[in-house]
Amino acid sequence: MGKTVFSTVLSFCLVGGVMATSAQGQQAATAGWSPTKAAAYLDKRSTWWISWPSASRDQGTFCVSCHTATPFSLGRAALHSALGESTASPNEQKVLDSVTKRVRMWHDIEPFYPDQLRGLPKTSESRGTESILNSLILVSHDVPTGHLSADARLALTNMWALQIKAADMNGAWAWLQFHNAPFEGDSQFYGNSLAAIAIGSAPDNYQSDAAIQPGVKLLRAWLTKNMDAQTALDRVVLLWASTKLKDLLTPEQQAKIVAETVAKQREDGGFSMSAMIGDWKRHDSTPLDTSSDGYATGLVAYALEQVGGPETVAPLKHALGWLDKSQIDADGRWPAVSLNNNRPVMSDTGLFMSDAATAYAVLALTNAPQ
Q: Top-level CATH class of 5-366?
């Protein structure tokens, strides 16, 4: 983290999601989860984020954070059926409007973090990161319609234009670095796996478009070349991506990641972020919390749902059982832990990882096999 309040706030804005809640002081969870309470939590948090001055960006837009706005877009949409909603919620629409505006004004709007204010190479990192998140959000919005919208296609076009061809990064995109590893704050691999998810999920068989095949080939090669050096957490996201982008992983490679991941499941059925990120020490020297949390459990469960197969049935059922009973009754969130520093559990910035945890828990529970 930066040494000043200003730099700390900036690092939170787009990819500072590791600054999260501590497991200490968590309130008792209820048995059986409530879609209504989950939606209320996500809506409240997105309302705060959208109006937070530090999230404000050029031309009346706002930062599309990995920890709050992006998971919100994915998770909140998954609740439509359970809540009897036929259209996007008001805050979902605000996110879509902001993203769409930035996509359409791509060559004229300021990057989230320009070099002139943050130093080299923040403009390149900002553009690469945002291009991926814009594509993921708009493509995800189009999936239920079965057709790729003009705005989502434009977002993907903007993204492709930024794919790197330099030898050591050939096929990848730049990703914001805020020294917040091991979460997405420093993980280029995580971001490029999200790019693969966006490409592979796009309707109208977009991933087979002849014009993008050279780029797809390079992305596949970069991800598979680098996957063994990644944390277990990042390999779970790659596993998810492999269910969307054809021929990204072989069945044997998928099975290996599934086995390695399932081996980390705790007796209570949950997964712990601290077990998914390798040899990591908190900046404040406090021991990592090893208890199960909503972010790791939700993400793993959702990825296992996408893979399917007999080897996922038992661990998935166990993980979904933990999610079903671990929602915090008082506010509808799922607990998550801080990987870097101890933050006040219920502070606005302290809730960042509970934002991601709640969204992924919702995705897993609403996609659970019947």
A: mainly alpha
